[in-house]
Amino acid sequence: MNKTLRTPAHRKLVQELRTARREAGLSQQQVAELLGVPQSYVAKIELGERRIDVIEFLQLVAAIDASWLEILGRVDSADKP
Q1: Which CATH architecture has domain 3-74?
Q2: Tell me, what's the pLDDT at 30?
Q3: Where are the domains of the chain?
Q4: Which among 62, 59, 53, 64 has a CA at the least distance from the CA of 29?
Q5: Which of 17, 30, 34, 51 satisfies CB 3.0 to 4.6 Å to 63 for a cystine?
Q6: If we measure between CA atoms, which residue out of 54, 49, 53, 61 comes closest to residue 6?
Q7: Sequence-ordered list of residues with C-beta below 8 angstroms from that of 9, at least 6 positions apart, any chain
Q8: For 54, how many CA atoms within 13 A lie in the half-sphere containing its CB?
Q9: What is the spatial distance between Cα 17 and Cα 81, in angstroms, rounded to a whole number?
Q10: CA distance 14 to 45
Q11: pLDDT digits (tens, 9 = 90+) for 2-36
């Protein structure tokens, strides 16, 4: 696996996405169905095994009805000393 997948910022982003999904009361399977992708796609994102581009990020955030700005804000604030 590429070492860049294990950066603190990426781990925080994954954590925030997983937390937002759970707070929305959605399973990985439900999110996958909303996105039209296999459940393994969502699982790999949440495990940090798959990176997503900005479009995929926005689609995922919309599917869980979360604020992309809040998620990125928490990632950014966690990355500062």
Answers
A1: Orthogonal Bundle (1.10)
A2: 98
A3: 3-74
A4: 64
A5: 34
A6: 49
A7: 75, 78, 79
A8: 2
A9: 22
A10: 7
A11: 555 678 888 999 999 999 999 999 999 999 999 99
